[in-house]
Design goal:
It contains 6 helices and 6 strands; from the N terminus they run ααααββααββββ. It is of the alpha+beta class. A hairpin with a 4-residue loop joins strand 5 and strand 6 (about 170-175).
């Protein structure tokens, strides 16, 4: 290899490294989906504010046993490519985080929500936001029927959202349940 060829090769390697590290997108254009590409139109009132989209998220999954959920409304809250990430694990096994698409959630969690009854409500919230993005720690409790005195479960939903200037989009919901060794900190129970 001549010295000019070696120099040219080094220059291209450095340029490529700078592109990767310094601001050129390494995400293929096909993976860069604008939220406006959602297949189901949202109710404007469901996504106009952060409070509205969170209330809609809890409302759409809640209902009595035997009641079908409005899965199109659920879909309309999420950005394309959004993830729902339940955490947990069997006793004595390492905890896991499962990566679900919106359709995975509907397929895997939907039948149980509809057959057993499920009412989830927010019991506390902590919000951090910057520009177009927001991170919400939303403490919740879950009951099979709203008349039950004691919830069967409590936990925290970590919800990431994006505002495109016209509406809020849920980008991900990542949650963990409260356990005796993992109580919800008091700071997340204050609104």
């Amino acid at each position: 290899m001549t010295s000019s060829s070696a120099l040219s090769l080094r220059w291209w390697r450095i340029a490529g490294l700078c592109l990767v590290l310094g601001g050129g997108s390494t995400v293929p254009a096909s993976a860069q989906v604008a939220p406006q590409a959602a297949s189901v139109a949202a109710r404007p009132a469901d996504v106009a504010t952060l409070d509205a989209v969170l209330a809609s998220l809890y409302d759409v999954i809640s209902g009595p046993a035997g009641q079908k959920r409005d899965w199109d409304r659920f879909r309309s809250l999420f950005a394309p490519g959004a993830r729902l990430i339940p955490t947990g694990g069997s006793a004595g096994q390492p905890p896991t985080a499962r990566m679900w698409t919106v359709e995975d959630y509907i397929e895997r969690a939907g039948p149980g929500l509809e057959s057993k009854g499920f009412f989830e409500r927010e019991i506390g919230r902590s919000v951090d936001s910057f520009g177009r993005i927001a991170q919400v720690f939303s403490a919740y409790d879950s009951r099979r029927d709203p008349s039950e005195v004691k919830p069967f479960q409590r936990g925290i939903n970590s919800i990431q959202l994006f505002n495109d200037g016209a509406r809020w989009w849920v980008v991900s919901v990542y949650w963990d349940a409260e356990r005796p060794d993992n109580p919800i900190p008091a700071r997340y129970l204050n609104r």
